[in-house]
Every structure is written in C-alpha cells, then in structure tokens.
C-alpha cells in the first residue's frame, strides 16, 4: 500500500474555553506530560501497525491549544511518526498556536523539534473584538508573536474571524488589508457561527447580542474575495486562502478524501475505508489507552455510498472541484450515479457551478450557497452501494 497518509494529533487542553468554540477542548489545572506523551505514542503505534509502509505527507497538531505542549513532547511525537512511516519529501508539519508571549517564546524550540508551519489564532486585529471573542491576548501581543513566528517557521497561517455582530464592511476591509500586508502565505478567514452548546449560543438565546444576518455575512464574504484575489492569495476552499503552491497539504488531504489518521482525545480518522473516533474526554481517552493500547471509541466500516457522499461533500468545497472519474474509481460507484446532472445543469445556468468533462466545480458565486446546492446535486443511489 503506497497511498499517502496524513496524521492529525489532538492536544485537548486550553488555558480557557473561548465562547464560540465547539472543539474538543478542556481546561485542567495540571497536565501530567509524561502520561500524555506515553498515551499518544501508544495510540500512534496502534494506527501505524495498520498502515505500515505508506508515506506520511503531513502532520497537524491541533486542539485545544497544542502550542502549550512542551517542545520535547512535540519532538518525541514527530520522531516516533518518522520511525513508523516513511516521511514524504518536504513533509508539512503544522502546529496551531495562540499568539501569546508565553507560547511565542517556545517557537524556536518548536521549530527545532521539526515543526515547519504554524497556524496562529490571531482571530482579530481589534482589541475590543478580541475581548468579545474571549481571547486572552492583545493585538500588540499578536503582532509580536507573528513576527517571532515569521522568523522561526518557513510557513505561517493566520486565522481571523469576521462577520462579528455590528462589524461594518469598512472595519473588515481595514482589518483584512492590514492582515494581507503581513505577507503570510496562507490565511483562514472564518465567518462567526453560533455553534450549539457554546457560551455564545446561550448569549444569543438570552439576547446578549444579535449575530450578523445572512445578507451582511454574504456581503463580507464577497468583500473578502475582492480583496484577497488581487493580492495573490485567492480562496482554494470556502474559508481558506493561499498563495499558489502554499495550500495546506494536510487540509487538502481531508477535502480530497485521502486517508488520514487521527490520534488523541476526540480525533476522527479515515483509513482503509474505516471511520475512527477517539474517546473525547481526556480521562476516558487515557483509560482506553491503558485498557486497550489505543484510544478508539468507535470504528465503523464505510460502505461505497457513504464514502461517495463524504467525498462529494468535502471535495465540492474546493476551488478545484471534484473529478467524477476519480471518485468513481475510488468508490466503485458509476459516475452517473454520483451527481444529478440535470440539477447540475440547472444550477450551472445560474452561474453557481461549472462542468468541464468529468470535473465539477462550485463557482465563487456559488460557494456561499454551498449548503443549499449540495442537497440538490448529490445523487448517490442506495442500490449503488449493494
């Protein structure tokens, strides 16, 4: 088996829980680093035994706040991954980081450990917005951390959240133009969404604030494209922008539906046509590793129909679109059973999707409407999975 792999490592701990966050993150007074390193190494070894001989194209440390990990822990995990798998040439190794002075002080050691790409959660360049978002850092601290990151890592991504309550187009334009001027090769620009179970959901329900309406959010999305395209950092996915050749290889593995391994609390994986999920609560994850030498909570075989649907839902997020021929070869479902061509042609007349041979692509105008488009065009018949 020579198909490439991506590896995701979840570090679930944060100093505090942001009010918009629905990720698997937890606040603990203390973390036993030795126990956690041993557990992650065991979880990794379990997956490696199932996928030996395959080249590893990327590693992504996500969270939580993985920049709180000691650099020695990061180094040990990277070294173990290299022993288990063949590292592809120019492997991408990303670590998510908060732009605090404490975490920025670790950047040089993290680079020495093998991290070559960092994703900085700036989230905003306005201090009032950072306070609203529950972020512990200031804009000045963010910019100091960004400068240190650019000195230590070959590639830097910036995360920003827009479509905040009462945010104007003029405010977002000024913020985004300033961000573009920093010269990073990648930006992740997310609209604020109110996720179930978050503190923001409670605040909206009790009337503490009113989210941006859909029309305003759509206008800010259009403005985002108008500013990033001429700057040479276009969207290659709904919310992700990169200079040509600087797209996140790890995220492309997800969206192209390549195999990826997920280890650590709550991590999801797709490997060898199986879906895996680890125990979410840190203590339950540790208990599972102690009991079974891995943290898997569920492991489910994916039938061709499910794989086809997932592939389409992920792939159509990309500016490159999907190839039905490639998808058919991977799922053994006939290409004419994957998409409703009549619906595609109807939506194409509206300028929301294009078709070039077997390649189907949602246009920039269609991307904001993707959630409405997908149910109309995805056609995977039940008998195709038989």
**CATH architecture label of the largest domain:** Alpha-Beta Barrel
Low-pLDDT segments, ≥5 res: 382-386
CA gyration radius, whole angstroms: 21 Å
Strand content: 15-25%
Overall geometric form: globular
Average pLDDT level: 93
Order of helices and strands: EHEHEHHEHHEHEHHEHEEEHEHEHHEEH
Helix segment tally: 15
CATH class of the largest domain: Alpha Beta
Primary descriptors:
21% strand, three-stranded antiparallel sheet, 2 domains, 15 helices, eight-stranded mixed sheet, 14 strands, disordered C terminus, TIM Barrel, alpha/beta, 386 residues
Describe it for me?
This protein is of the alpha/beta class and 386 residues long. It has two domains: 5-255, Aldolase class I (TIM Barrel), CATH 3.20.20; 324-385, no CATH class. 39% of the residues lie in helices and 21% in strands. It has 15 helices and 14 strands. Strands 7-6-5-4-3-2-1-8 form an eight-stranded mixed β-sheet, sandwiched between helices. The protein is globular and about 60 Å long. The model is unreliable at 382-386 (pLDDT under 50).
A few lines on this structure:
The chain has helices spanning 33-50, 71-84, 101-104, 107-113, 127-132, 139-152, 169-180, 199-205, 214-228, 249-255, 282-292, 304-315, 324-331, 341-348, 370-377, and strands at residues 5-11, 55-63, 86-97, 117-123, 155-162, 186-191, 240-242, 260-263, 268-271, 274-278, 296-301, 322-323, 353-356, 359-362.
Topology:
Layout: E1 5-11, H1 33-50, E2 55-63, H2 71-84, E3 86-97, H3 101-104, H4 107-113, E4 117-123, H5 127-132, H6 139-152, E5 155-162, H7 169-180, E6 186-191, H8 199-205, H9 214-228, E7 240-242, H10 249-255, E8 260-263, E9 268-271, E10 274-278, H11 282-292, E11 296-301, H12 304-315, E12 322-323, H13 324-331, H14 341-348, E13 353-356, E14 359-362, H15 370-377
Parallel strand pairs: 1-2, 1-8, 2-3, 3-4, 4-5, 5-6
Antiparallel strand pairs: 6-7, 9-10, 10-11, 12-14, 13-14
